[in-house]
Amino acid sequence: MFAFNCNKSLGANVSVMGFNLNISSHKNLTNGKNEHAISLFPNITLSSKIIKYKSLHIVFNIDSSGSMMSGVTHGDINIKPRIELTKECVKEAIMFLYTMVTEGKDVYISVITFSSSSKTIIKHKQLLSNQDCLDVMKLIDGIKAYGPTNIGSAIVETIDICNELNVDKTYKILISDGYITTGVVGVPQIKQDYKGFYSACIGIGNELHYDKNLLQTLSEEFEERACYNSSEMKEQIIDSVYSNVSKIAEEVVFSEPKSIIDRIKTDKDDRVIQKDIKFTTKLFWIINSDKSVITIKNVPMSYLKSGGYNVEGGPVVGSFNNIHIGDIMVNMCESEEKGCSNIEFHLELSVKEDYKSKSMEKSFRKIQKFIEITNEIMEMDIDNISSLCDNYKKNKSIYDRIIYLIKYINECDANDINSYLIGVLDKFKVSIEPYTTQTVGDYILNPPIATPLRMARTQTSSGSYAFVGRQVSMGYSMGIQDYMSSPEDNVVNSPTEPPSPVVLPAPTLNIPMSPLHGFNNMGSMGAFNFPVTPPPPSPELTHS
Q1: CATH superfamily entry for domain 56-240
Q2: What residue spans define the domains of the chain?
Q3: Is the Cβ–Cβ distance between 13 and 5 less than 8 Å?
Q4: What is the pLDDT of residues 260-273, one digit of tens each?
């Protein structure tokens, strides 16, 4: 239930009440002050018990206009129609949702397609059995793409469908590759009337293909989710469902914001480290204060109970004292939200000189350098392609430091945090590489290369990456210890892929093993099995 570890290699680690707190310390030689690198992340194995809602309604709005027949890059060689990839991704999400059903949740599925008008393909379908899932997947397979784009009609139909079903929580997911080209309701009115209407909006292709501003406005999330290749489509569509149902806290607040000397920059209040804490969230910041309080607000009791914590008998307090690091007290107290609690870490640190080591210095530096690189990328003016191109020397410097940091972390002991950092850095490396040479000026004619960089920044600033969400959700739904992504995913170019916390055993669907269904029988467990010979690329369609 409670665990405390303190050593010269990794620093202090507190594992208590659903969260891990890591503290690595070193002395600033300039001012003589102790500095502490803080990392905070959930530590309970994924199960449907963490979700506080008993009944869920997942509504997919799928763009079925003609432009969805154009291709999305698959790896480096293949082109596959957007509509086909979308269908495969939605079916993977169905697998995740079905596993929740087997653990006692009531899950309903609705699917609405839209082109010149909207059409309800699936309405209030409750997933009760293996056959229900296969029936849903068969209907999804039958979706065809043709005609113009009428998002407004899908919104109206979604409202009607949602109002007809009484559930604890509804999640609405929009998937589109286009601009509105038809319909009686114009873009300005849609923005005004339906701001934040969808739980997540997913733009297929680069950000010039779809109405980026419209999708941002319609989404509850900070940004639309951009899917510029097949790997990103898989990650973003599945994670859009997974991350929405796996929220485990409202926010993390730090009592001494003036003592924060480094953190990933956001537009949030100085005291708020991060809002909307998901199951995959990992937070990092550096402080020079020995006394502070970290508060995780509005943690659902369902999440704590899923970890085996007895939360019925009132507040739980854990107190740890170590001669090397000092005092850490953990307290659970009432929150303003019913069915939730606040968790507080009270730090009174007094790090001794003989406690520090080269290993701990490495542990501190990797977080420090990760934050520095992240912030430099966050400061890039990605809306000004010319500026990005002109700064290719600076971009190359960042790129080189990313390579070095990956090597540096790989030399540290393998653990979940290090694997996560390498995964994120690999995303940075791929997204910034096009801007690192003098010939980058050629890309002025191709501004969509900003899309991967924008997504990398957005996900890092939220502390939660879609590739982790997909790994965890698919590992959970397939009942395996490690989710093995297919080679074309290129999720992490590292031997230290983060393990997926899963519940064992978990049921699997008896899905026919054919390329049409996108699942193979070779142990990749959910990775798509594309035909060896791809169809010829479809011509790029315009949104007229």
Answers
A1: von Willebrand factor, type A domain (3.40.50.410)
A2: 2-49+247-355, 56-240, 380-461
A3: yes
A4: 999 987 766 688 99
